[in-house]
Amino acid sequence: MPKIDINKVAEILKKNQVSPALLRQIVEEMNLAAQPDPGAEDAPPPLKKQFVLLVSDPEGRLPKTDFAGWAVQIPDDQSPATTTERIIRAAYDFNATKKGRLLPVKTVGEALENVPARHFKECDLWVKTKTPVLLVRTDNEIPSDEDPVKAARKARAAAAE
């Protein structure tokens, strides 16, 4: 919706011969409506969020330690196994540019953090997290105990052993 200055509206109303009393009332109502909401100023800042990648490991094949990784997207009809190849191709393209010759990327992490999105877009890859996020292991089970907090604590204790 386009915004218009209240004084401009008052001039238009004067030009169309609106009575001065009605004009004054309309301008006062518009000034009140244009005032910022006092409750909106005291709103807390938005909560910062982060991505966490969760991997299902019901058979316990992964090590007990957590991993760091990145969230990326590729087209649905493409194989996820091509993701690394796409990153390498984008890194090669970047390293061939002037900035890439000055500061070449040597690792996948450097590529995901420093290569501009246009190089990845040419390879049909979209980087969602430039910095690594925590990859958390889960056994993919919801305990059937009555108290879910106690059950979660038991599961963490069993995983720690």
Explain this structure to me?
This protein is mainly alpha-helical. It folds into 2 domains: 6-41, no CATH class; 53-138, no CATH class. The protein has 8 helices and 5 strands. The chain has a 3-stranded mixed sheet with strand order 1-5-2, with no helix packed on it. It has a two-stranded antiparallel ribbon with strand order 3-4. Helix 1 (6-15) packs antiparallel against helix 2. It is flat. It starts with 5 loop residues before the first helix and ends with a helix. 7% of the residues are buried. The mean pLDDT is 84.
Mean pLDDT: 84
Q: Unreliable segments (pLDDT under 50, ≥5 consecutive)? A: none
- Give me the side-by-side strand order of the main sheet: 1-5-2
| Gyration radius, rounded | 29 Å
Quick one: overall form?
A: flat
The major beta sheet can be summarized as: 3 strands, mixed
* Terminal CA distance: 61 Å
Structural class: mainly alpha
Q: Please give the share of residues in helix.
A: 40-55%
Strand content: 5-15%
Number of strands: 5
Compute the number of structural domains.
2
Order of helices and strands: HHHEEEHHHHEEH
Count the helices. How many? 8
